Amino acid sequence: KELQEQQCWKQLHPGYPCTAVASRGPTKLASVGEDGRLCQLEQGRHEPVRCLERADSGAPTCLRFVRHDHVAVGNLAGHVHLWDLNSPDRRPTQDLFWAGEQVTCMGQHPSQGHLLASGASSGRLCLWDLRQGRLPTATLAAPAQGALADMVFEPEGALLFCASNGSLLRWGNPGLPRGGVELESLVRPQGRPLNSLDLRGPLVATGSDSEAIFLLTLGRD
């Protein structure tokens, strides 16, 4: 069967690209664009629930729900802003800062929701503890060359991330405050960027600029 459009929101970011979309459950959605506008959406409603004008002036690149009505927005100025979509306040509830880096992707730990991972255009990774201050609690210079494009946590807590050099890597212990770093290469550099990543159970899918899709099963050689 062909895919059919179920709903469309028009003019959410007039004249600007929409740079990221996030969802929470079957009905909650949010979008952010190069205009810095943050829109709260709901399936079945044709108009936005709420839009925050100029919510982010640092060229937002990524967006995700971190709690029921809270979203995190990462930008090229090295900031991650946390917003309460139900609050009348037009200021972020938290402003995290990664000095000298451009945030390109984010992932939240599945069982420790206070842990938020971010990737940068430099290929570096960092880990934030949302209960603490605004600076990263841990950083890692990954062996990937170029920007990190997407990341997702496994249910057990390991972090998968893909990069613009076409590699897919696994950080085995990002939540551990001590101990050595465990990095595993799942896909070696392909010459074309890997730009997206998803995980369902043991199955991993990652897409490439070469229009190829790599399918892997975790735990198998």
From TrEMBL:
The keyword Ligase does not apply. Gene3D superfamilies: YVTN repeat-like/Quinoprotein amine dehydrogenase (2.130.10.10). The keyword Chaperone does not apply. GO terms for cellular component: nuclear pore outer ring. GO terms for molecular function: helicase activity. It is found in: Nucleus. SUPFAM superfamilies: WD40 repeat-like. This is Putative pre-mrna-splicing factor atp-dependent rna helicase dhx15-like protein.
